[in-house]
UniProtKB/TrEMBL annotation:
Name assigned to this protein: Uncharacterized protein
Bilayer-spanning residue ranges: 63-86
Keyword line: Membrane, Transmembrane, Transmembrane helix
Length: 95
């Protein structure tokens, strides 16, 4: 795949600065964002996949919570409440 050099002026031709991005325009916005990321940080797919795997909510419930709870009970409880709120809001907002 040929990656073009990042040109910030080119993005102004795609999305003018006074354009309100609506929900129906999100696929176009995603394409622009992914193209910008591919140009800005090329060959970093493996790194972002590892970051995504480390930040997986399932891993947080099964590994990070018990580990943090054994180190400091208050932080473990805060982490659990944070995880529950994030997962709940993610589910509600997607629905």
């Amino acid at each position: 795949m040929l990656v073009q050099a990042y040109n910030p002026a080119a993005l102004h031709y795609i999305i003018p600065s006074n354009t309100l991005i609506r929900r129906e325009n999100t696929p176009a916005t995603e394409r622009i964002t992914s193209r910008w990321l591919a140009c800005t940080v090329p060959n970093r797919g493996r790194f972002f996949m590892q970051v995504s795997a480390v930040g997986d909510p399932g891993l947080a419930f099964t590994l990070y919570f018990p580990l943090l709870l054994s180190v400091h009970a208050g932080l473990g409880v805060r982490l659990m409440w944070t995880l529950l709120f994030c997962e709940w809001s993610n589910m509600i907002l997607k629905w």
